[in-house]
Amino acid sequence: MDSKLSAYRTAAISGQSQIDLLLTVYDGAIGAFRAARQFYDDGDLEAGYEQLQQARRFVTHLYTTLDPDRGGEVAVNLGKLYAFVINQISLAEATKDLAVIDDNITILSNVRAGWAELKRQEKVAPALATAVSAGCFSDSG
């Protein structure tokens, strides 16, 4: 069953644009942070920790797929932001501070909103969106 689910996910992802894939990763990270917050709030520390680990994997993926050579200053600044969020995950794990988790949700939600706006503009100005998205991230990761 797991192999069929994996094949389905691969097929669903393969048809997405680079911006759609980014939005999917952001959604995964934000969702994991929200779940971690809820688990910590409910007192389930183990499940909260597991969700923070999931969030770390999503943000690490965003970080490792940046291409500073093509993305220039935008990629460098995103890299700094992702490094900050990853460090904040460690702080949240150590302190169980819900405000730290909320801050990470806000940060990633704001950046995600920027990518969503770029996607919206892609319909208006495809050349601009393609140049910016291709310039910030590598194709592998």
Overall SS class: mainly alpha
Beta fraction of the residues? under 5%
**Structure summary, number of beta strands:** 0
Over the alpha carbons, how many angstroms does the gyration radius reach?
Answer: 16 Å
Low-confidence stretches: none
Main sheet, how many strands, which sense, barrel?
none
Count of discrete structural domains: 1
End-to-end Cα distance: 25 Å
Shape: globular
Number of contiguous helices: 6
Helix-strand blueprint:
Layout: H1 2-14, H2 18-42, H3 45-64, H4 68-95, H5 98-122, H6 126-136
Q: Please, could you describe this protein's structure?
A:
- This protein has 141 residues and is mainly α.
- It has one domain (18-136): Four Helix Bundle (Hemerythrin (Met), subunit A) (Up-down Bundle), CATH 1.20.120.
- The protein contains 6 helices and no strands.
- The chain has helices spanning 2-14, 18-42, 45-64, 68-95, 98-122, 126-136.
- The radius of gyration is 16 Å and the shape is globular.
- The two termini are 25 Å apart.
From the structure above, extract its key features.
141 residues; mainly alpha; Four Helix Bundle (Hemerythrin (Met), subunit A); 6 helices
Quick summary:
By secondary structure, the protein is mainly alpha-helical. About 85% of the residues lie in helices and about 0% in strands.
